Amino acid sequence: xxxxxxxxxxxxxxxxxxxxxxxxxxxxxxxxxxxxxxxxxxxxxxxxxxxxxxxxxxxxxxxxxxxxxxxxxxxxxxxxxxxxxxxxxxxxxxxxxxxxxxxxxxxxxxxxxxxxxxxxxxxxxxxxxxxxxxxxxxxxxxxxxxxxxxxxxxxxxxxxxxxxxxxxxxxxxxxxxxxxxxxxxxxxxxxxxxxxxxxxxxxxxxxxxxx
Length: 211
Description:
211 residues; alpha/beta; five-stranded parallel beta sheet; two-stranded antiparallel sheet; 6 helices; 14% strand; disordered C terminus
């Protein structure tokens, strides 16, 4: 019986033995580093396109529209697929892409978000917390922001209440948040859809946090 370690030791680039086709016409990505040991995944370009289309449909169901201005704040590079994948997802939904990334630093990313006023932000929870602290410092709210999507880390209810609601969404703590779980139709989501930190679900309002 193969162990998890056996799979890690026999994945590309250590060996091509597990590939189902010759290494050609493909994209190589590394994922899983935020939750454990990173693993390398090789997809053909056709498989990548199909994957991004499925994720784009999930994005659309989460509420991303053609008139949305989406700030992509994931890290680009390191072989991670999120930044590239979100680009394709936004394109699928017909939205306006702000390819900011967090590589440029939180302060610079925050300034660009202040300038371009996105309606949707996508990143790690840590990025949102840091930006919320900056917004508190400067007395700024993102008036147009209506949806936050995150992946890779947990977001506690305390952080959500103490940072994101008050400092990213019109300084109001009175929100009914619609939590959605699309895991059934989205088996390998770039956006982590989790209900670990929340046990309640309420009606839809102007501002939504997709978890």
